[in-house]
Amino acid sequence: MNDIIFLPMRLQPMHIGHLELLVESSKLGKKTIILIFNSKTNDKHNPLSKEKKIKILKKTIELENLKNIEIISMPYLENTNQRFDFVNKNIKLTKNSLVVSGNEFILNSFSNLGFKTITPKEILGKLINISGTKIRDLIREEKEFRHYLSSGTLHYLEELNFNKKN
Prior knowledge:
The protein is α/β, with parallel strands linked by helices.
């Protein structure tokens, strides 16, 4: 078993693919750390603020009864070196940590630092055909989208009384 499962994520918004990955990857370690990436500004590609993403993630963790999960929110940082410095200062990964990402740059970077890395597909077997971009497009087009969302995201939309189609 790994000491730490490290999941860097954008969560714009958190969807069922993220949830499935969180549930399955958390079984591989003693503790799971989710690093939330944040953008410089909120726009159509990054509509959720840091606070909203944390709120949604915490509610999802609560509703799904997940344990031993820590959330760390990384402020927007301009360059890669600043991001790695933030991770080194705020996340105490061990050589028995596992880095989970679908981003080739992240996988290669952590692998080159001597960490074990794995892709979501390697954990889940197959991936759901969904992305934050697809969900945001469905919302803008007023098409069905709720079945793609995590429990915490749905709860958040209910709080907002968000009444787009379905």
